[in-house]
Design goal:
Layout (H helix, E strand, L loop, with lengths): L19 H9 L5 H8 L2 H16 L6 E2 L10 E2 L2
Antiparallel strand pairs: 1-2
Length: about 80
């Protein structure tokens, strides 16, 4: 099943910190290495899965402060940091 990225800041259904377009803009500025080459040959679904996986890994970390709202789906944005 394909994954759909929801990247709206503070949204309850957010599952990524970046849109695919924003991620591509960042990748375009990197020095070409194995990861950049892998990204270039990946399907849209594989890229979306990478964005989702990165967000899950970030959200496993412990951060100072508190979530900005009780309804947001991800750890950021935060208050008190």
């Amino acid at each position: 099943m394909a994954i759909t990225i929801h990247h709206t800041v503070g949204a309850s259904n957010a599952n990524s910190y970046l849109s695919l377009t924003d991620a591509q803009d960042l990748i375009d500025g990197l020095v070409e290495d194995d990861d950049v080459t892998a990204w270039a040959s990946a399907t849209t679904d594989q890229k979306n899965r990478a964005l989702y996986t990165a967000a899950v890994r970030i959200d496993r970390e412990r951060f100072l402060g508190a979530r900005a709202t009780d309804t947001q789906g991800m750890q950021w944005p935060r208050e008190g940091v």
